[in-house]
Amino acid sequence: MTSPLVSITRDIPGTPSIPGATLRIAPAEPQMSRAQLLEFIRGSSVIVSMFHDKVDDEFLDAAGPQLKGVCNFAVGTDNFDLSACRKRNVLVTNTPDAVTEGTANIAFALMLDAARRVCEGDRFVRAGKFERAGNIFPTGWLGVHLTGQTLLIVGAGRIGRAVALRGLGFGMKILYVARSTHPDFEQAPLAAQRIDLDDGLRRADFVSIHTPLTPDTRHLINAQRLKLMKPTAVLVNTARGPVVHEQALADALKAGTIYAAGLDVFEFEPKVNPDLLTCDNAVFTPHIGSAERRYREQMTAMVCDNARSILAGERPPNLV
Fold first, then answer.
1. Which residue among the candidates 120, 186, 269, 297 is catalytic per the annotation?
2. Of 62, 97, 135, 304, which one's alpha carbon is 20 to 30 angstroms from that of 298?
3. Prediction pTM value
4. Distance of CA 226 to the CA centre of its chain
């Protein structure tokens, strides 16, 4: 009897192991085309997918009727047509918790970078301008401070809470936006206040986005809402790119409507709006939120455990 095939659509950190299964692992780069992906997954019993793999009817048909489950190497599942999976009795899993600390770290790194103009300063030094101009003290390179400022968390999940906890270390006051009250935000140590999004944008000095991508959150941050923000405010997005209207953000940054922005995700990823790229007051990272070795290796262990459970006919630990 041949062993079930588990196809992993991109090389993953650590050493993936699923006893009793044959593993087929795509290289880390280049990313496969859609046609190559559909051919690669053919005949799989379980697929380990990436956040950029669109799991829809076409994908499921290409895999074949023997497919039992798709394990997403990510916490979000906006790349899935969950109803299509449900119709075929294909189980869907994700990797919650493992992405929390790394993504919170990159969110706060972007916040600090944008506030204190770190990347802008790096470019200045590399171009030899520091050597020519010297240290423009005390009026040059002024940024915005964090201590005592108001941090608005949009999306009160695990990552949003982890970012809020980091804000406490800087003496920040925490507001949050969520569909319902979150006692873990409102109790000590955060003692955060739940607020309407528009009111929160008016009051916040820093805004960190952690909401999933849904029809309701697409372009949640648009031109009208950017105009609500302070001209000294910083916007950070480490959730999903389309939550922010990129052209509106570029326009706001150029006009000085807001002070700065830090983005780890993009509306048309991996493409970036050309107008954004010309904004010195924007900081970018290439969707690396969870990219700390420890946590990526945890994600590998989680998808392997989910796949093993699916093949064994058990309920997987991270069933979506």
1. 269
2. 62
3. 0.90
4. 20
